[in-house]
Amino acid sequence: MHIRILFGLATLLLLTSHSRAQLQWDNLVQQFQRTPQDEGLEARFTFRNTGAKAVTIKSLRASCGCTTPRLEKETYVPGEAGAVVARFVFGDRKGPQRKTIEVRTDDDSAGPVLLDLRVLIHDPLTIQPALVYWKRGDAAAAKTIQLTAEAGQPVRIKRIIASNPRLAAKLETVKAGEHYTVAVTPTDTTQKESGEVFVLTDFPADAPRTYILQVRVK
Amino acid sequence: MAGLVIAGLRLAVAGVFLYAGTLKIWDFTHLRSATPDFTIAIQNFRLLPSPDLALLLAVYLPWLEVTAASALFIRRLALGAATALLGLSAVFLGAVGSAWWRGLDIACGCFGKENAPTDFRFLLLRNTALLAAVAVLFLHEWRRPSPTPPHS
Amino acid sequence: MIARAARQLALVLALALIPAVVSGAWQLAWKKAEPLAAGEVRLATAREWGARVQWVDARSRAKFERTRIPGALLLNEDEWDKLVGPFLDAWDADKTLVVYCDGGSCEASHQVAARLRKDLMIGGVLVLKGGFAEWQGL
Question: What dotted CATH number matches C40-135?
């Protein structure tokens, strides 16, 4: 009788203890710095099957539609190496970004693994705010937008173009390459208006960027 | 003498499980349900395929600990209670052992939310001692004659 | 003896189930009443506001075109520069913007809301708790 109990106990222990996680990942977190002009990047998350059994990757799920994970094949025999390649398309994203990919395998002993892709999409020019607006009937007073370049990375503003003549824009240089202001004044605020101010810069030298300021009378 | 040892063991084991179960049900420091913390603790062991299962276990397991610990004192339920506690301690020992083996750096979650760093050797020792104590109780209940003679 | 152990074990397991079910039902209520993070709004609240809400869809264009909350405007970070102009033309400055994405753990709504607040300095931007899944009643 006791033997049977001991046997049951042993089975229970066997069921609850597991072998070491079988896919060994080299870098679960990867960090990059890029500029908006790069438009995207590919990160390789490499791994090796260090277990004694073949492992099949069942699913890859990205936290963002902008990130597409790719896998050369699904099943890896012991000792075999492979990689999940994550393609992150920036779109119009800026600043610090964190995208994750959840990897599930048929080796259920060690829950899903989270691959962590961190990218700083670095834009040296800060625009504050990128929108000025008046409500109809407001005083037609000027509103000012600040454009600040990051220290050590001068961005020169060559000129600005206002798309709507009833929304006049005036560029002022506070400190060349570092700090500019754009003052926008509506002719009046009696009717709805919509316009954009294009800010032409010299950065980067090979493909100078144009920034867009939004102006509205609502 | 043996009776005294069994009574002491019964009190100790019941006390440990009542204490552990209660702390997993209610967080007395923050006066709120401890289920979210216990759910996370269970998930950290990475033994379950889905977080929903972890939530179900986080709700049920503490009540099982409390119920089984109380039932140890009811003659007609003591054997069942000892069986349940034997299973629970074995599962806990297995979970902690496998976490240690897999090199996970996680909190045990044994007594609600803990902040101290995990010392796996101590945990394994503690769980083994608990398992041994429960096993003695179990064998005692197993050998004990049925409270009501079976109908023939 | 095994039969007696099994019978008693089943009884103990079942007894434990009673408080667990009660507590589980309460936990479910707790899950629903999960506190809102800063800048989030519940669907019920946004529905009460009715026409004072402008829905903002932070999902992809493909998903937006398939199905959306009626009256929602598309604004996501994939095509921010292209979408922000038309979005601001349609925008009513007197309405509260409520941004949503798929639901669950999606981050897009929080990011779009942060950008509306910080870059465009529009006040009163909220994120729909539970996202589009909540709207669909999933």
Answer: 3.40.250.10
Q: Which sequence spans correspond to the domains of chain C?
A: 1-34, 40-135
**CA neighbor of A88 nearest in space, from A121, A126, A56, A55:** A121
Q: Break chain A into its structural domains and give their ranges.
A: 21-121, 125-217
The beta-carbon neighbor of A129 closest among C1, C89, C119 is: C119
Range(s) of the domain holding residue B127: 2-143
pLDDT beyond 70 at B144 = yes
Mind telling me how many Å the CA of C64 is from chain A's nearest CA? 13
**Contact state of C8 with B63 under an 8 Å Cβ cutoff:** no
CB contact under 8 A, B71 and C24: no
Q: What is the DSSP letter of A165?
A: T
For B62-114, write each residue's pLDDT tens digit. 999 999 999 999 999 999 999 999 999 999 999 999 988 887 777 777 777 66
Longest CA pairwise span in chain B (Å)? 57
Whether the complex's predicted ipTM surpasses the cut of 0.90 = no
CATH superfamily of A21-121: Immunoglobulins (2.60.40.10)
Among candidates C5, C15, C30 on the partner chain, residue whose Cβ is nearest the Cβ of B79: C5
Q: Residue A82: what pLDDT?
A: 95
Task: Give DSSP secondary structure letters for B84-135.
Answer: HHHHHHHHHHHHHHHHHHTT------TTS---SPP-HHHHHHHHHHHHHHHH
- Report how far residue C49's alpha carbon sits from residue B8's, in angstroms, rounded to the nearest whole number: 63
Q: Is residue B152 part of a domain?
A: no
Say how far apart CA C113 and CA C127 lie, in whole Å.
Answer: 7
Q: How far apart are CA B99 and CA B48, in angstroms?
A: 13
Helix (H, G, I), strand (E, B) or coil at B19: helix
Cβ of B48 and A20 within 8 Å? no
Q: What is the CATH number of domain A125-217?
A: 2.60.40.10
A115: left (phi over 0), alpha (psi -120 to 50) or beta: beta
